[in-house]
Amino acid sequence: MSSTASGVSAKTAEVVICGAGIAGVAAAYHLAVRRGIRDVILVDERPPLSLTSDKSAECYRNWWPGPGDAMVSLMNRSIDLLEDLARESGDVFRMNRRGYLFATADPDRVPLFAARAREAAELGAGPARFHSTPTSDYEPAPAEGFDHPLTGSDVITDTSLIRRHFPYLAPDTLALLHARRCGWFSGQQLGMYLLERARESGVRLLEGRVEAVDSTGGRVRSVAVSTRGGTQTISTRCFVSAAGPYSARVAALLGVKLPLLCERHAKFAFNDVLGAVPRHAPLLIWTDPIRLPWSDDDRRELAASAEHRCLLDEFPAGVHGRPEGGRDSPVVLLIWTYDVEPVEPRFPIEVDPAYPEILVRGMSRIVPALGAYASRLPRGVVDGGYYTKTGENRLLAGPLPVEGAYVIGALSGYGLMSANGAADLLADHISGRPLPAYAPAFSLARYDDPAYRALLDDWGDSGQL
Ligand SMILES: Cc1cc2nc3c(=O)[nH]c(=O)nc-3n(C[C@H](O)[C@H](O)[C@H](O)COP(=O)(O)OP(=O)(O)OC[C@H]3O[C@@H](n4cnc5c(N)ncnc54)[C@H](O)[C@@H]3O)c2cc1C
Q1: Tally of CB atoms within 10 A around 229
Q2: What's the DSSP call for residue 351?
Q3: Which one of 16, 18, 53 would you pick to mutate in the ligand 1 pocket, going by the greatest count of ligand atoms within 8 A of its CB?
Q4: Separation between Cα atoms, residue 262 and residue 264, nearest integer Å
Q5: Which residues are near ligand 1 (CB < 6 Å)?
Q6: For the chain, does the N or the C end have fewer beta carbons within 10 angstroms?
Q7: SS3 breakdown of the chain: % helix, strand, coil, rounded to 5?
Q8: Which residues are 184's β-sheet partners?
Q9: Which residues share a beta bridge with 398?
Q10: What pLDDT is recorded for position 4?
Q11: Cα–Cα dist 335/312, whole Å
Q12: 462 and 392 in contact (C-beta within 8 Å)?
């Protein structure tokens, strides 16, 4: 086998992975480094980690709803693996555990926070603690470090305690839910670390596009890759689709239909020169629907504009944001998806020019000091991509109905946090190891189960922020 400008020239491989986003890179790492499969080729037509995997807000959480405990179990496993990786690498990807802080000013939502904390405890996210007096022993999260022992959640309903620990939040905040085994890290650093370790264990990168998979006789036989130097055909008995927003297209090469959809999601990063969001803050999430704050003049102008009148309507819950970078960084990152219509993935993505203003105004509901930017919007960077997901927002990691073919995909808005758990599960499938109890919840075959299909009709909260 000889190296070429496009990476490798290979006639055979034990495993061919299509896609070097976080899913493909994590799959290569778990197969090569943790399962000892040496002959893995990772194919991508783009530079590794450059399509969806560098657009993420890079947060993680073990905070997921049911039905069942599969999501929490998979995510706990993924976070265990992330913590192992942080430990062994000297935390090259700067993982913290500041938590997710959900906030409400709606009295009706306050009991829901308590119910959610209890439900999460039952699902395995960790214990629920309640703080309803000014002297309660709520413990804030440290700004740095990934292995603080608190898990589960704290529900704070005493407003003086809220004010004492979170003076920068809206003064009418009535309750907080602080989910603890949550935080963020550098997704690019994580991906590069996994890729380097995988390459040290023999994984080869091939720059090119997977154009065809020969599955004559119902089993994988070879993969055709178009490269700058022409088409290479790689004989293999194992093919993994890790194609992100193109997963359905790649599965179709095998005659398999995946039940996937894509939603557009974007983030806005800007310099918070006024210091509205403290540098030590956790991820802040407003859980009430809101109307954007406008001046009377703005309101009149918007009401007169057919195009912009909708900015006076109520927006859905879920605006969120966090400080980004080290202590000296001024950057704040905001996200809010209020339009979740499925779309065809197209790159580069188009984002509403009004998005930064909507975000800043929306986020000023939870951090009022951000309102100072509303009249003079700071310059910043908007970028985004697609959440590629199943209808119920549960990922796919397991075999496809063609012998030797597998998928790791539908990682939705949680691919950075789940990639290690999903790749670990995929590697168990491929290496024939015993599977964890949650494996069926992430297999494509779950849709063949009538009981599961019945659940889909009445799924409830998908856990998407
Ligand atoms: C705005 C936004 C915020 C997000 N925030 C978070 C967050 O806070 N936490 C979190 O965990 N996740 C978050 N996510 C989700 C996360 O980014 C994704 O789940 C993850 O990046 C998906 O990774 P992937 O490897 O499946 O896909 P991708 O990164 O898109 O990689 C797929 C790769 O496959 C390649 N490919 C496709 N078809 C072919 C082919 N035929 N031949 C060769 N190569 C091919 C592509 O070139 C691409 O490189 C966010 C996403 C967005 C858009």
Answers
A1: 12
A2: -
A3: 53
A4: 7
A5: 18-24, 43-46, 51-53, 55-60, 209-210, 242-246, 250, 265-267, 384-385, 409, 411-417
A6: N
A7: 30, 25, 45
A8: 59
A9: 407
A10: 41
A11: 19
A12: yes
* Contacts (Cβ under 8 Å, ≥6 apart) of 224: 210, 211, 212, 213, 214, 231, 232, 233, 234
Q: What is the pLDDT of residue 339?
A: 83
Nearest to 182 by CA among 26, 75, 74: 75
Write the burial class of residue 349 (CB in 10 Å: 0-12 exposed, 13-18 middle, 19+ buried). Answer: middle
Residues 6+ apart with CB under 8 A from 277: 168, 284, 321, 322, 323, 332, 367, 369, 370
Question: What is the DSSP secondary structure assignment for residue 152, as one 8-state letter?
Answer: S
Sheet containing 15-18, strands listed edge to edge, beginning at the edge strand earlier in sequence: 204-207, 40-44, 15-18, 239-241, 405-409, 396-399
Using only C-alpha atoms, what is the Rg of the chain? 23
Please provide the size of the chain in residues: 465
Q: How far is the CA of 52 from the centre of ligand 1 (A)?
A: 3
Tokens 């596009």 map to which residue?
A: 209
**Cα 380 to the center of its chain, rounded Å:** 22
Q: Quote the CA–CA distance of 280 and 101 in Å, as a whole number.
A: 12
Q: Which two tokens stand for residue 87?
A: 């430990």
pLDDT value of residue 7: 53
Both tokens assigned to 280: 């030590």
* Amino acid at the residue 308: H
Contact by Cβ (8 Å): 194, 186: no
In the block, residue with structure tokens 């999903």? 422
Residue 211 DSSP SS3: strand
| Side-chain half-sphere CA neighbours of 399 within 13 A | 16
Mean pLDDT by 10 residues, the chain (465 residues): 49 97 98 97 98 96 97 98 98 98 98 98 98 97 96 98 98 98 98 98 98 98 97 98 98 98 97 97 98 95 93 96 94 93 92 94 98 93 97 98 98 98 98 98 98 94 91
Asked whether 162 and 169 are in contact (CB, 8 A), the reply is yes
